[in-house]
Specification:
Largest sheet: 6 strands, mixed
Strand content: 35-45%
Radius of gyration: 27 Å
CATH class of the largest domain: Alpha Beta
CATH architecture of the largest domain: Alpha-Beta Horseshoe
CATH superfamily of the largest domain: Ribonuclease Inhibitor
CATH topology of the largest domain: Leucine-rich repeat, LRR (right-handed beta-alpha superhelix)
Distance between the termini: 81 Å
Structural class: mainly beta
Number of helices: 1
Low-confidence stretches: 47-58
Amino acid sequence: MDYTVTYVDNKKVGTAKVIIKGIGVFTGSKKVTFKIVKTINGKDIDDKTKNESANDIKGVSSITDGKLIYKVTKEGTLDGKTVGKVTVVGLKKKSLKKVSIKSVLIYEGVKYKVTAIGKKAFKNGKKLKSIVIGKNVSKISKGAFAGCKKLKSITIKSKKIKKFVKGTFKGVKKICVIKVPKAKKKVYAKKIKKAGFKGIVK
């Protein structure tokens, strides 16, 4: 080799230097600078970019898993240090007969807890027969299941729901059965009935 290559300040984001020096019969040197930039998923980004590193917030307003539509209420991070939150706001597929609301949704590498069911989320879900509600849901908004006339069962896994809003079950037939955690049966049954549900809670 007729030259040496030396790197300067080449570990951190910013401007780095390469010094090339001739050796032996070759003399002289040359300095070359280049930029080291942050990346997310292999894509270069600069300091003016909103998402500067894998720790940054992945900003989206709504997402879908192909079956349900979710609204992002708290943004998560790609490194997993911050878990986001989402609310179910609608059906992506109107033909669904069964819906299972996950406890945690992973979207493009970011984790989101599914914490609520939004207003009229499943309204007039004419083909829906069963719904399973995940353990992280703490709120079910007004009219969430309104008009789901074919609904036969709702399974609630969450123990965090503090209130069932009046009108949540409007239009749901008496044949529908709501299954709740044993530890919350007495409390939930009272609140569910107060919200207007006319079927069985067990």
